[in-house]
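[Structure tokenization] protein backbone as discrete codes

[Encoding] learned vocabulary of local backbone shapes

[Begin record] amino acids and matching fold tokens:

___
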Amino acid sequence: MSKIGIFDSGIGGLSVLKVIYEKFPNNIYLYIGDENYYPYGLKSKDEIIDRSEKLTNFLISKKVDLIIIACNTVSSIALDFLKKNYEIPIIGVIDGAVEKSIKITRNGLIGVISTPLTAKTHIYRDKILLKDSKVKVYEIGSQELVNIVENGIINNNPTYLIAKETLEKIKFVDTLILGCTHFPALRDLILKILPNVKIVDPAEEIVEYIRNYIDNKDKSILEFYTTGDIKSFKEKAKIFIEDLEIEVKKIVI
């Protein structure tokens, strides 16, 4: 049995937990939603590094064997820093999606939707072009779409119009990377607007990266923590893990 720590700014990282849990159920999972410091996408780089270091220290204090950064913003800003300063294996969500998008694109036009800060780092563009310089990458940062998922208002009237206005800017791409872990919740909506696009969900690609760290031999244990409001976290968590009854503890970090 492995003990795996996962963190994100809010509920978006639950999309990563869901995929990993379904593939490797018999492990211990500790998930932190850092909702008191949401949104990460509007923070400075120094703030992102500081929060990621604090959350990493908390998970290490719980004796986890592996840490997964279930956040594209942190993966783009702080992953290299964390890997350099900690001996524990730490995995981000970006590399798998980069490789998958290059593999499946047919017209060489790849779109990325993410938080504004992830878009500003150009990490997806740079990593993709490093592997295939002929591909063209189009990045869009939308905090508004992230907020829609985090606030649990996906089915409200303005959501479709906001998504349509955002995605029409890159309607010519044939492959779209969900560069924020909140966005798998918008998959059906995205396909209504871009029905022919091939979606790359980094959460689905991370499975191969963690396989060598997972024992998966015993019963499963799920522990949830939030730096924000417990009731709000539990209600919003149903967007991704509606089939699980969860208990949540509030922590101060």
About this structure: The longest strand covers residues 3-8. The radius of gyration is 17 Å.
